[in-house]
Each structure stands twice: as structure tokens, then as C-alpha cells.
Amino acid sequence: xxxxxxxxxxxxxxxxxxxxxxxxxxxxxxxxxxxxxxxxxxxxxxxxxxxxxxxxxxxxxxxxxxxxxxxxxxxxxxxxxxxxxxxxxxxxxxxxxxxxxxxxxxxxxxxxxxxxxxxxxxxxxxxxxxxxxxxxxxxxxxxxxxxxxxxxxxxxxxxxxxxxxx
Length: 166
Ligand code: ABN
What we know:
Elements: H1 2-14, H2 19-35, H3 43-48, E1 69-71, E2 88-99, E3 106-115, E4 124-126, E5 154-164
Antiparallel strand pairs: 1-4, 2-3, 3-5
The structure holds benzylamine (ABN).
Benzylamine (ABN) binds next to β1 and β5.
């Protein structure tokens, strides 16, 4: 089928010019087809579509979650700033810097775990702005911050603004 169509196109082109011209036009068509899949796409616009102002605290792209690695407490019976009932706030946490798209400022955000219940299992987000691999533990965020608490089981993570970064 494809062969027949290609033959038809080639014949049609051949009737309208020299062999060199036909080859040049065919080459152009094939080169164009090869380039199309790698043309740039505005991915920022595409992802912003679901949460245009990054203001929904139950979505991973909420601006404060730029460096969170864990389950959002806002999906687990708490909020982005409050642990769910029956859990305790972790004694240590990870701090990242996120830009608030609304006022254009950078904020220090502490990602603090809520401990004492098994994993919430909802809204697992893995954002890593400013994070480094595990061999640099001090700047790695994939850690259970409940380890310093009496109850070490991890439930979910809250995101607290601790200051302005600029
Ligand atoms: N700080 C969230 C988390 C908890 C357990 C394991 C990895 C990350």
C-alpha cells in the first residue's frame, strides 16, 4: 500500500520536472518529516494548564511544593501547614527555596513530616529544586524526617514558610 502510494507521488513529481528536481523535493519532504517530532514544545504552558496559578494545595505543582518529596498532608486529613489529627510534627526537616509566582519573591520553605501513623498513600509528590543526590545527605530530601521523633513512622509532609530568601 505504502509502496504504491510512494510510487504514485514519485511519478506525479517526475512528470513535473527533472530527476534532480524530483530528488530535491523528495529529500525536502523526508527531511521535514524527520524534524517535526523534535520541534520545541512549550512544556511550561502545557503543565500550567491544570493548575494555572499554582494555587491548589492538593496538587504537586503548588508553588510551595517545589522541593517536596513525600505525600501532601492536604490530601491526608491535614492541610499544607497542619499535620492530620493523630500525628506529631517531626523534630527535623528539609528546607528548600521556592518562587511564589504571584508576588515573584523567593521563600524559604521547610518540609516537615507528620509522624506516628502509617504512610497516607495519597498525593505523592517528588519535586527536587535545589536537591542533590543521596551521597550529599545534608542537601538530599528523600529522607524520613520522623527519625528523631519518638514515633518514627512517616505519614505525610507539610510545607511551612520560614522566611523570605531575597
Ligand atoms: N520526607 C518524606 C519522606 C519520608 C519517608 C521516606 C522518604 C521521604
